[in-house]
Amino acid sequence: MKDIRIAVLPGDGIGPEIVAQAVKAVDAVAAKFGYNITYTHALVGAAAIDATGNPYPEETHQACMNADAVLFGAIGDPRFDNNPEAKVRPEQGLLAMRKKLGLYANLRPVNTFESLLHRSPLRYDLVEGADFICVRELTGGLYFGRPQGRSEDGNTAYDTCVYSREEIERICRLGFEYAGKRRGKLTVVDKANVLATSRLWRETAKAMEKDYPNVEVEYMFVDNAAMKICSYVPFTSPMAMFTRIAMSTVAWYEIAISIAVLIGSVIGIGVLSARIYRVGVLLYGTPPKLTKILKAVFADQKKS
């Protein structure tokens, strides 16, 4: 029997409820295939701020470092969302985890399921059979660029988007390699007609094409890609556009809106944050209204 250590970070809002069910699923799989799972629970996000003042405490980091995998729920709290003056925020814990663990890529599968097709506002024939993967860069760009802050009078705010060629190469390499394992098509999404960082993305990806002769590469502006995800041809058609999409953090959010329309979920089903593919993210966002509903449902189930 093989031993596996998993750090469990339920986080905030609906995160603990979802993670509890995920642990049951992991236990069922482990029992079937002969794995012995040891769980270490740790705090992150608003829960960690309340307990320690730090959204990603050192104890949590060490638990992640000592684990073979990390099961991550969600972070966020309306107390911080609605307070622009808050100096410490739950999301800072997620960013710190990405940086310290070297989680430079998200692998975000986009698939439709028969039972969920009615959740999409698009026509059935446009949605059925959707199957592609978004590869999103995580540790460069706007979230981590410096300088970042406010002017002395507080009337001007600024963030800096910075990418190095090395950061772009490693994320594109992941996109190329996975495209080669699927249908051999990679779409690099950027805003190269406006942004200098996007032009470096496109230049770097083009230079890498010769190393992957079996991968067909297409370059697309993010607004065009977002539109075509929702309105091109049926995904069951041989002309289906996407099999693998590589993009920056900024580009992701426009694509995410189209994916939400396509399948009724902002990130698809499950996420891997990749350095050595060991962080599984179950959901993004901590919908407080849904959390209250679930707690009421669980309370009723206990009574019955």
Q: Could you please describe the fold and organization of this structure?
A:
By secondary structure, the chain is an alpha/beta fold. The protein folds into 2 domains: 1-103 and 275-304, Isopropylmalate Dehydrogenase (3-Layer(aba) Sandwich), CATH 3.40.718.10; 115-265, Isopropylmalate Dehydrogenase, CATH 3.40.718. 41% of the residues lie in helices and 21% in strands. The strands form 2 sheets. The protein has a 10-stranded mixed β-sheet, with helices on both faces. Strands 6-7 form a two-stranded antiparallel ribbon. A hairpin with a 6-residue loop joins strand 6 (149-150) and strand 7. The chain is globular.
Number of domains: 2
Which outline best applies?
A: globular
Q: How far do the termini sit from each other?
A: 38 Å
Secondary structure tally, helices: 11
Mean pLDDT: 83
- Look at the structure and give the CATH class of the largest domain: Alpha Beta
